[in-house]
Amino acid sequence: MRSRYAGTPFTTSTEDIAAALVDVSVPTLLLSLVHITGDTRYLDEFAQAGVFLNEIQGFMSEEDRARARAVALEVIVDYRDRGCPEPAPLDPGVVKRMMDWAACEPVGEEYLPLMSEELDLDGTDPRRPQALDPAAASEVPVLVIGCGESGLLAAVRLKQAGLPFTVIEKNAGPGGTWWENTYPGARVDVANHFYCYSFEPSNAWSHYFAEQPELRRYFADVAARHGIAEQVQWRTEVVSAAWDDDGGVWRVTLRAADGATSTVAARAVISAVGQLNRPHIPDIPGAAEFTGPAFHSAAWDHGAEVTGRRVALIGAGASGFQIAPAIADDVAHLTVFQRTAQWMFPNPMYHDRVGDGTRWAMEHLPFYSRWYRFLVLWPGADKGLDAARVDPGYSPQDHAVSEMNAMARLMFTDWITTQVDGDAALLAKLLPDYPATGKRTLQDNGSWIRTLRRDHVDLVRTPIERITATGVVTADGQEHPVDVIVYATGFRATEVLWPMTVTGRDGADLREVWGERPYAYRGITVPGFPNFFLTYGPGTHLAHGGSLILNSELQMRYIGQCLARLADGVHSMEPTPEATDEWRRRSQEAIRQTVWAHPSIAHSYFKNSFGEIHTVSPWKLHEYHAAVREPVWDDFVLRSAPVTAGSEVARHA
């Protein structure tokens, strides 16, 4: 059987092939030629000087690109005329050389297991679980909370393993944040050919950074292909979950859309609720007095007209950054209230459409789509963490934590400065006073500052004092009259699992156990809460690169192995306090050595009220991949029977 990534045979005319090649990523094209011919000379003939994040052409000159396309045209026409035979598998040493060439630097041995899985050149889906014995699997019904990207993934993997499951989803369809966030301009910040399941790639993305409707369709299509919808209870919320140690089950209370409640039992629970899930609306005096439409960006009121209206956009983080340029053409006046200036990363491709030639190459050229995935993954795989880590020997100057971080600050500052065209007042508002990458860095193609410079748009950095019936009053006493208020004020990110009540062994309330310092062993399991698994749990939010879909795939493989142990006769499992404390200690030690913990950053959704960070991952992608590749069973307590007073049935495997 032909590898799913070897390309669909084609009879495209030579003229049309030549036209398609004008549109493609030339480095990716040359890597495809190595597969077609088995010859690595293309790597030698077209050396690259370096790779820049989202710069899919590397630093090849236009002359070299044209020459490469001409060489490729001859090879591809010959390949077509030979009937598009499936390329022979490449030697692992050749694949490693191709990685190094694409990365423009040696790909360390520590990254090879992860990158090989991501490439998946043989199309085997290496993270797919093995099917369990049906009789054993039937004894382990699983309840999944949420059908966003991680919950849908969990459902797919559970079905592949043969485990019975039910998904509980509060929305009417799959996609989580991509179902809910329908505000104008909503789009993903991770290149889409990587921001998708490794085993469910799409060659049909219309944008390199897809907009919300297309992402919503993608997750709906995946759910349909895998037959997941019939196992989801839509428009239903989990109110609480309580562990029954005697029965070895979780008893989960559900609330349907009509308010009716019910209780179901499951041997295991997988939380897939996310961290950017529950909107946060600040408590501003007078907000209830406002007489116009007022709503959070994650619950956009499409019945509220903004065209020709005066709009207040409170908050200018990731959501506000997208909303303002999207509505500026329509509104009569836009006032943006921003508490903290944001660093912006130059990304000229942020709004670009994927050309027909690129889609043709994705569909037909052998392994083009997989190498393109690698090309957008690698520059974002831990490069950001290198710039975010504190160099203890660096003398702090100009709000930086290392020489690399200072270089990033200079680059970002230059990007902002060149766009304001000498407007010193605007520049003073736009330049952050904290180190680069210290908060979420926003993708920018110039649309943000271009919007702020428009005559009918104001950027207000003065704090808000109160809201009146017809406007917003700032601390300087000025009232800004508005007709509509949009709260782009983020989410309750540090309140993990809020508002659910999760009760573990001996009546322990997880929210009380955590307080403002949530933790989990490897971000997945918690002592005292048996058979309870977290995706996107504490300490796994990615602030430096990769994608949450990648993390979810790694976590679900790990969870799948745990569930297989339950199917093998284990009554319950949970991590030992000792192993959890050690993971927590190492994580906190690493987090404190990052720019995100810098004391100059007063406001960040990473931080709790104590200024501590417990939700963000401090680990390089390969480090976390290795940590969750398979469970270390010595770090778990596995019980073969209910624990009763005086019994000693706990055992380590």
Question: Overview of this structure, please?
Answer:
- The chain is an alpha/beta fold and 653 residues long.
- The protein has 3 domains: 14-126 and 354-380, no CATH class; 134-278 and 493-651, FAD/NAD(P)-binding domain (3-Layer(bba) Sandwich); 280-342 and 442-490, FAD/NAD(P)-binding domain (3-Layer(bba) Sandwich).
- It is built from 21 helices and 22 strands.
- A 5-stranded parallel β-sheet has the order 3-2-1-7-19, with helices on one face.
- Helix 1 runs antiparallel to helix 4 (62-81), helix 2 crosses helix 13 (368-377) and helix 8 (149-161) packs parallel to helix 19 (548-567).
- The longest helix has 20 residues, at 62-81.
- The chain is globular.
- The two termini are 40 Å apart.
- The model is unreliable at 49-54 and 643-653 (pLDDT under 50).
What is the structure about, briefly put?
The chain is α/β, with parallel strands linked by helices and 653 residues long.
